[in-house]
Specification:
three-stranded mixed beta sheet, about 35% helix, 9 helices, alpha/beta, 9 strands
């Protein structure tokens, strides 16, 4: 049930944007307080815009976790970047998330320029302050100088330790208009469980295969059968080549078994109950370049 908002209550949409692998999904999970977005050391983990809902006593912030903005090499990449850039112009505020343990790069500046062209209020989110090294003062000073130059506030935080996140929340609230509750206060995402289940499987593939199966993999949830004592899930992993199928299955099926076991454990936390998971692997050549197959697998192709 959606309650009435009181006097002075704020609500709105805030996009988390940045180049790949700066910690946007980890930040989203940290702000929400539970895992709804997958994370991995592999760049470009996030593909679809994912909304997380942070309800505070004074505001409801709908966080939009966007894919890392990068130079695309196929139709999937073009779709990912187009959707990420599109998110910037359709929100109330943005947080440009950067890796505060290294100096600002050309990728960060490209994303910043995109935000500046949109005229959407922005915050410079300096992440990973728990990983600062010898150049810490110089690196942070360069980011703060960049923020001041463009009239942005800078927030320093760690998505891993939680340091600085309350200050970031306050900055986001300051930029929201007065408004109603968009969602019930106890809801943390508007994505269906099936979507998150598929993402949890894809996360394990990225974590366990790393460079061997980079991004030529998609996951579809074919069936979810909720029974009183157990939920049975059937999923298909789509790859582009037979060699990738072999890597995913592994010797005597060991890799697929490990992927399934780890994903099942995460799913059980999601639904707070027992899960039986079956995963099949299917070869679909060049699916990342097929408009029809991308659409069929749930990607917004315009």
């Amino acid at each position: 049930m959606i309650p009435e908002s009181g006097e002075g209550f704020k609500s709105g949409f805030v996009a988390l944007v940045g180049r790949p692998n700066v910690g946007k999904s980890t930040l989203l999970n940290a702000l929400i307080g539970q895992k709804i977005a997958i994370t991995s050391p592999v760049a470009q983990t996030t593909r679809n815009r994912l909304r997380g809902i942070l309800t505070l006593p004074e505001a409801q912030i709908v966080l939009v976790d966007t894919p890392g903005i990068h130079k695309p090499h196929h139709l999937l990449g073009q779709t990912i970047v187009k959707n990420a850039i599109g998110a910037i112009s359709s929100v109330d505020a943005t947080v440009l998330v950067v890796d505060g343990s290294v100096f600002m790069g050309t990728g960060d500046r490209f994303v910043a320029e995109t935000i500046l062209q949109s005229n959407v209020p922005a915050i410079l989110g300096i992440n990973k302050i728990d990983m600062l090294g010898e150049d810490a003062e110089e690196i942070l000073a360069s980011y703060e100088s960049f923020a001041a130059e463009h009239g942005w506030q800078a927030a320093k935080f760690s998505s891993v330790t939680g340091e600085g996140l309350e200050a970031l929340q306050a900055m986001m609230c300051d930029r929201l208009p007065l408004g109603p509750y968009y969602y019930p206060p106890d809801l943390v995402t508007d994505q269906p469980e099936r979507f998150i289940m598929g993402e949890l499987i894809r996360e394990q593939i990225l974590l366990l295969t790393r460079e061997e199966i980079p991004h030529s993999v998609a996951v579809s949830i074919d069936q979810v059968d909720e029974q009183p004592k157990i939920t049975r899930v059937m999923a298909t992993v789509h790859v582009e080549r037979d060699s990738q199928k072999g890597i995913l299955i592994g010797k005597k099926g060991q890799m697929l078994k490990e992927i399934g076991t780890n994903a099942r454990q995460q799913m059980q936390k999601l639904i707070m109950g027992s899960v039986h998971l079956e995963i099949f692997v299917k070869v679909q050549p060049k699916w990342r370049s097929s408009r029809f197959q991308l659409s069929d697998l749930g990607y917004r192709v315009e």
